[in-house]
Each structure stands twice: as structure tokens, then as C-alpha cells.
Amino acid sequence: MLENELRLGDTIDDYCKRCRLLMNHYIVSIVDGEVKKVRCQTCHHEHDFQHGQGGRKKEPSGKSLFDQVAATLPQTSPPPKTIKPKKDRRN
Ligand SMILES: [Zn+2]
Description:
Elements: E1 11-16, E2 21-31, E3 34-40, E4 46-48, H1 63-72
Antiparallel strand pairs: 1-2, 2-3, 3-4
């Protein structure tokens, strides 16, 4: 099932919030074959496994920010209502 068999104490790359870098970590907890907790080999900070990603990954420029801004703005131009032809009025 598992592509790479990981075991406690193995070294794995993960993002360390303290170091703010992708660092080598020891695996300290595995649940159902998935790494749950790791410990930074540099600062010994123990935390949940981030799958190599920090809480804030670099967002692709534009879209995410635009969505945030757009969500705060009132809709100045709502989509026009579609005018449906009334079949009833036809003779
Ligand atoms: Zn660290």
C-alpha cells in the first residue's frame, strides 16, 4: 500500500515554523501509516507534520488576493437579469 515505508525516527523533510524553512525532521508519531508528528532536527520543535508545506504557502500572485478583495467589495455591477420571453402572452 505505502509507497515509502516510514518509521519512527526516520528523517523526513518538513516545514518548520520556528526555522521558517524546510528542514530535516525526525518522525515522532505515525498513525495508520501516515506521519502525524515530526521534530525539527535543527531546533527540536515538535509539531504536526505539514507535508512539507507551511501554514502559508506562497500563493500564486493575483488570484487568491483578488478573491479576498473582491469578497469585501459590494457588488457594484450585479449580473443583468435574464429576460425570459413569456410564452403565455402569445396568441
Ligand atoms: Zn526548526
